[in-house]
Amino acid sequence: VCLAKEAGLLYAAVAMATDYDCWRESEDHVCAADVMAVFKKNVTKVTDLLVKAVELIGQQDWDQDIDALQ
């Protein structure tokens, strides 16, 4: 984060939840295979998100924002 700010880079984070019941103590513990199955289901969604984000980012003029960070 600090290096991105020092370099004047704008960034965003993307997270994928893979264990939706992690807060439920009564549920069985998740295994790696379950996590990977959910991860694989999310790949298409994240790919679509990133493609759309790049498209929208490319339509903006970011010069003032970048200059403000440097």
TrEMBL record:
<keyword id="KW-0328">Glycosyltransferase</keyword>
<dbReference type="InterPro" id="IPR035994">
    <property type="entry name" value="Nucleoside_phosphorylase_sf"/>
</dbReference>
<dbReference type="GO" id="GO:0017061">
    <property type="term" value="F:S-methyl-5-thioadenosine phosphorylase activity"/>
</dbReference>
<keyword id="KW-0808">Transferase</keyword>
<dbReference type="GO" id="GO:0009116">
    <property type="term" value="P:nucleoside metabolic process"/>
</dbReference>
<dbReference type="InterPro" id="IPR010044">
    <property type="entry name" value="MTAP"/>
</dbReference>
<protein>
    <recommendedName>
        <fullName>Nucleoside phosphorylase domain-containing protein</fullName>
    </recommendedName>
</protein>
<dbReference type="GO" id="GO:0019509">
    <property type="term" value="P:L-methionine salvage from methylthioadenosine"/>
</dbReference>
<dbReference type="GO" id="GO:0005829">
    <property type="term" value="C:cytosol"/>
</dbReference>
